[in-house]
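Reply to dn_fold:

You asked what the input looked like. This is it:
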Amino acid sequence: MSTPAIQAALQQMQGLATQAASTQPLSGAQASTAVGQGGFGGELQASIQRINRLQQTANSQAMAFQAGDPNLQLNDVMVDMQKASVAFQMGLQVRNRLVSAYRDVMNMQV
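and this is what came back:
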């Protein structure tokens, strides 16, 4: 990275730090609504939909590349397939943690 590029990046970082310092923190009521209105179930469902969308996009790009679409490059297809794979693995791990937590709660003595 050249010196002017480093200086430009440093100036941009300092500007962002100044901007972040000048914003007001959220109050308690604002902070709770900023997280989301759907709750945990809504967030889980939205995550599953995003994972599904990533997988569908990767599959459609792979099919288009196999069909010979000149607008697609192999590296783009492979990156999107890896993104979908990582997202799926993350979803699988979240599911495993939820099942484990459920089992722990069910095995508790009352």
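The chain is about 80% helix and 0% strand.
Hope that clears it up.
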